[in-house]
Design a protein that fits this description.
The chain is α+β, with helices and mostly antiparallel strands. It is built from seven helices and 22 strands.
């Protein structure tokens, strides 16, 4: 009997196990190449530019289009990346097939929706325009979420590279509540028209507004509401939900309430002016925020307009948790 034979088979078995372990650790067996093999050129998407300052890309970024331009701004190609691949790669996008050289990358999410129109995207960066599709000067729809990010000129070659791309949200929703400060006053959604007016309907490749044409955003929801207020108690009012494109500090955005029966304006106020006061309050509490940063980070606003009992005067405003008396602090 050969007593050495079991030891021979045991050694072969151990070698086989080790070989399998090596195979399992190789790139061909790993889904996420960026963490285990460090190969390829990757764009790493982030959405942290929100009011909570948290990473929210996995929750909100479901599909993207990547526009690729050379160092001089000439169009090279584009990539469409769907939700499944984004999730599989932890919201990282691998760029392949480019000749070695310097490139610029622009990322949009949400543009596949029919609400948006893009022109000049296959020419030069200077000619790129994104706008509302077929809206003319009015929009009364709930706009799908729209996000933008860019990566300035970087070198592309065969070496491993992971470049962070930080996204900004370009859509906002305003839930506007019109509430009389009197239990004797009754209002109906058919009594008033609320609108948001701003020249923010066209953006360029740098996410800046480039048209002076005014867009009137009208409510996509009109309803009666009940407001439980700590100061005034339970009040009846009306609610309007309005969806807009990006709000900019240097482009005035007017919130206007009119009586339907007469066309009389109850108020016509500058939204960025009020937001500037909120930014100052954040700064006083130890979190410095410029007006534009607050407008970019905050994407949902609950705005309560408290009217006089006769419905002819704006007495007070509240945006989210911040309240100011209109007659003392705001230009009407």
């Amino acid at each position: 009997m050969d007593c050495k034979r079991p030891y021979k088979y045991r050694a072969l078995k151990q070698i086989g196990i080790l070989f399998c372990m090596l195979l399992l650790s190789s790139c061909t067996w790993v889904k996420d190449e960026t963490e285990n093999c460090a190969v390829g050129f990757w764009l790493n998407l982030h959405y942290t530019y929100n009011i909570l300052d948290v990473e929210a890309a996995p929750e909100y970024i479901s599909e993207v289009v990547v526009y690729i331009y050379d160092a001089e701004g000439n169009y090279v190609s584009r990539m469409e990346v769907q939700k499944g691949l984004l999730l599989a790669n932890n919201h990282r996008i691998r760029v392949e097939g480019l000749p070695e050289g310097d490139y610029q990358f622009v990322v949009w999410s949400g543009t596949a929706d029919s609400h948006y129109s893009i022109s000049g995207d296959r020419s030069t960066m200077d000619q790129f325009r994104l706008s509302l599709a077929g809206a003319g000067s009015n929009s009364a729809d709930q706009l799908p979420d729209l996000y933008y990010g860019s990566l300035k000129t970087v070198h592309y070659d065969n070496a491993y590279a992971l470049h962070d791309v930080y996204l900004t949200k370009n859509t906002n929703q305003l839930a506007c509540l019109v509430v009389p400060l009197s239990s004797d006053s009754t209002v109906s959604p058919s009594d008033f028209d609320l609108k948001v007016v701003s020249a923010n309907g066209v953006m360029n490749i740098n996410n800046m507004l480039v048209s002076d044409d005014l867009i009137t955003y009208q409510p996509f929801v009109r309803q009666t509401v009940t407001v439980d207020d700590a100061e005034y108690g339970q009040l009846k009012g009306i609610g309007f939900n309005v969806s807009t494109l990006r709000l900019m500090e240097d482009r005035d955005c007017r919130l206007v309430l009119e009586k339907k029966s007469t066309g009389e304006e109850i108020f016509n106020i500058s939204f960025p002016e009020y937001i500037g006061m909120i930014g100052a309050l954040y700064t006083a509490l130890g979190r410095p925020l410029t007006v534009q940063e607050y407008l970019d980070r905050q994407d949902f606003y609950t705005i309560v307009f408290f009217l006089s009992g006769d419905l002819n005067q704006l007495i007070q405003l509240q945006v989210n948790s911040w309240r100011l008396r209109a007659k003392n602090h705001l230009k009407l």
